[in-house]
Amino acid sequence: MKKLIALFLLGIVIAASGCIGNGVGLTKEKVLTALGNIETARYDQNFSMSMYFTDPSTNRTVNMTMSGRAVGAFNKSAGIEAGNISLKMHTMGMNINVNWPYFINGTSAYFKVDGKWYNVPRNDDLYRQAKGSLNVNYIENLLRSKNVTIKKLADGYAFRVNVTFWEFINATNQTGYLNETWGSASDRINVTTNSGWVEVHLRKDGTPTFIEVYMDLTMTLGFSPGETVVAHLTIHQSTALTDVNGEVNIKSPKEIKSAGNFEDIFW
User: Fold this and answer.
1) What are phi and psi of 204, to 5 degrees?
2) To the nearest whole percent, how much of the chain has pLDDT over 90?
């Protein structure tokens, strides 16, 4: 179950980059300054993923779907974040439902499962995903590496940029993690981006208020000669930011002092 959850979470973590058009009243420098000045915020993130492939040995189509929501807050200076994540997954006749509070500090990540807190080890896939649960730094990478035109809206500004899977992975600094996850099979995996984009809405001072990511991918996996699996994935994620640099009171749960090992959940 843990690896399945990690697979879905990996599919959700995807992003992009840019230069800003002239004459819109908002400059690239203002956006970069606003991004660097974000210290606290609340977020509401919704995400979904669907994948299907044909098993070459049985010629059977396998479908996987997932949807979820993460609501929380972070304090960058203090290095802490807390919230609640809910997931619904369906694959091969199985339904998996998760509803976990979480707490993250500078060195550890914790999930509360069935009323008990568990510490996620640093070498665990879920630890890496949790530590990057709300990564807005990729917007800065987007602004630096791709051409972007900012459009004026009634209540602020917005831009959309087309991105490929690898552009997103590079912008979110996940190339090393992905290669490690795929291991020796990485040279037998090919990802084609059929469609991919990132849209960002900004306040007049350049602060992001809404981020949306969409990707339609085809992944070809060559396990052995004559055994190739072609998987089709659709990923959609949106994040609304509120109370940016407002008062965010995050308390460390007392119970984490006696948190168990997250691995124990699966035994």
Assistant:
1) -65, -20
2) 40
Where do the structural domains in the chain lie, given as residue ranges? 2-266
Give the neighbor-by-neighbor strand order of the sheet with 156-162: 151-153, 156-162, 189-202, 208-224, 227-242, 40-55, 60-75, 80-91, 94-104, 109-113, 116-120, 260-261
Per-residue tokens: 183 = 């291991």
How sure is the predictor about 129, in pLDDT bands with cuts at 50, 70 and 90? low
User: Which DSSP letter does residue 38 get?
Assistant: -
Q: Is 33 helix (H, G, I), strand (E, B) or coil?
A: helix
List the structure tokens of 260.
């168990």
> Over the stretch 163-219, which tens digit does the pLDDT of each residue have?
999 888 888 777 776 776 676 667 778 899 999 999 999 999 999 999 999 999 999
Q: What is the pTM of this model?
A: 0.81
Structure tokens at 93: 């006749």
Instruction: Provide, for the chain, the percentages of residues in helix, strand and coil under a 3-state DSSP scheme, each rounded to the nearest 5.
Output: 25, 45, 30
